[in-house]
Structure formats: C-alpha cells, structure tokens
C-alpha cells in the first residue's frame, strides 16, 4: 500500500533444527500506515515475535530470512548492506523488548546510555544529547525526567524501566517501532498507563507501531489494525473493529471467546482445545484443523485467502463475504 511507513511482503524465516527445516514465518505480508498501531496477535509459538525480529533482520544462525521484502518508507531493508542496516536501526526503525533490561545497560546511568544512543547516529554535544534524552523521558510521561537520567536502571520500577526503553526507541523519532510484548510483565494499572502513552505517541509523532502480543484484550483497546498469526501464517487481518467485531477465522473466534474481559460475566469461559502445533509436525492442509470446530475433509488441503479489506485464510470463513 503506498504511503505505508512499514510494508512487509512475503516475509519468510526458517530455522534449521534436528527435526529438519521449520518455517517459523511463512509468507507474511502486511502494511502499517504512519501513526497507526498494528496488533500482531497469536499464541506462543505462532511466529509473531520471530516476525518482529525478522523485520529488523535480527535472525542468527541456525535461522535465516529466506524470502520477502521489508520496506521502511519505501526502502527495502533486506537489500541494504550490513552498515546501512545498522544505521537504519535505532534511527528509522526501533525495537522495544518485553524485558527492558535487554535495552538497558545495568551499570550505566539512564542518561549516559540514552545520550550514547543519540550520539551513535547524530553528531551533537553530550549536553545536547542529554537534553534530547530528557525530552524523550518527558514524552513518555516520566515525572522529574532530569532526575531519572541520573538514576541507574535498578533504581527504577519495572514500569518506569519500560517507559525508558520506549523513550530510547523514540530518540530519533523513527518511522516504525516494533514492540514485542512490552507490557506483558507489568501490573495491569501500569500497563494501562503505558498503552495510553503509546496511543498518544502514535497520534502525535506519526510513528507506526507494530505491537506484538498474545493478549487480544490489549490490542482490542490499543490497535487500529490487527493481524492474527497461527503456525507462522497470518490467518486473518483487518481493522481492529472488523476483526474483533466480526471475526471470520475460527481461530480468531476462539481467541476472542476465551478473553475474560470480552466475555459475558457469569458464563463458563470457552477454551480453544489442544495446543499450538509444533512447526516441525504440522498437519496436512490447514494447521488449525485438529483444533477447529468447523473442520471438514476439504481442510486437509491448503486453505485459500478470502476477502480484500478483511482477508481470512480458511476454507469455511465465519461469514458469507465473497472472495
Ligand atoms: Fe477450520 Fe478448515 Fe478454516 Fe482451517 S480451513 S480454520 S480447519 S474451517
């Protein structure tokens, strides 16, 4: 889609394992417009985090990105030299990890490491870099930011550390941020505050955000668009309103039904039977078939993708919408 901050086309990532080659990300395509938040949702092992890492080219052996394109503002990261890719990371595309200590160095003051992150890409004085770091902390709602800059990470709460990680990702006003389960380990109240800040940041800065999560309740309140992943593939995508309001894939329906906050009180909470399949032992045809209430013999063959604005990968989508 033209004008997209991030466009992913046919991204495929494989890993060599003792059991043979497994495809963790299988022909994944989506785009995110500036200022929009896209929720990439699925259970553990669905391939959503590997997709996030693949976008930034952070896949090491025995893994490999075997195909596809990743365009940031129209430039393909996969065609860049390693040096050009390094310059791109942190400046035009950043990542926020589930554990902020994957970003923060425990033996450096917050201000020193944020200033360093500024000066990796921009030739500015240390004082100017500290000022930019202070402004970034202010942007993510950290009180007394000048004081926090002098703190070490262990002197901050978990929620505060995650805000610092988000502020660090924002230092260069990137076009795209990939956030991998960044609020999963936080209290619900802190999670709510961070989600509100992220929504505001996307609106104010125009940064496109990919929010990787297993938590459909989080994306239902945060995301503009949703892609649902299962066994390495996107099985349903569309606006959050369409996907949550009228899910077309039986897996999405099962996910929604099993979210307590989206379920009528006082009624038993349904569950999706079984577990996520091992990628090395996928059933023939649709990988959701052993768990699907709508499975038929036809589902032993690869499902087609139906629909344009709200596509679904299924032989028997839940509505009558034509292909
Ligand atoms: Fe279920 Fe068949 Fe659709 Fe797969 S293709 S989700 S098994 S109905």
Write the layout of secondary structure elements.
Blueprint: E1 6-17, E2 20-32, E3 37-41, H1 48-55, E4 63-72, E5 75-76, H2 82-88, E6 93-96, H3 110-121, H4 126-139, H5 145-149, H6 158-170, E7 176-180, H7 188-205, E8 208-213, H8 216-222, E9 225-230, E10 233-239, H9 240-245, H10 250-257, E11 305-306, E12 312-313
Parallel strand pairs: 3-8, 3-9, 6-7, 7-8
Antiparallel strand pairs: 1-2, 1-4, 4-5, 9-10, 11-12
Helix pairs in contact: 3-4, 4-6
The chain binds iron/sulfur cluster.
Iron/sulfur cluster (SF4) is lined by residues 249-250, 286, 288-289, 292, 294-295, 299, 303, 314-316.
Question: How does this model look, in words?
Answer:
This is Methionine ABC transporter ATP-binding protein. Its main location: membrane. It is found in: Cell inner membrane. The protein is α/β, with parallel strands linked by helices and 323 residues long. It has helices spanning 48-55, 82-88, 110-121, 126-139, 145-149, 158-170, 188-205, 216-222, 240-245, 250-257, and strands at 6-17, 20-32, 37-41, 63-72, 75-76, 93-96, 176-180, 208-213, 225-230, 233-239, 305-306, 312-313. A 6-stranded mixed sheet has the order 6-7-8-3-9-10, sandwiched between helices. A 4-stranded antiparallel sheet has the order 2-1-4-5. A two-stranded antiparallel sheet has the order 11-12. The longest helix has 18 residues, at 188-205. The structure holds iron/sulfur cluster. Residues 249-250, 286, 288-289, 292, 294-295, 299, 303, 314-316 line the site of iron/sulfur cluster.
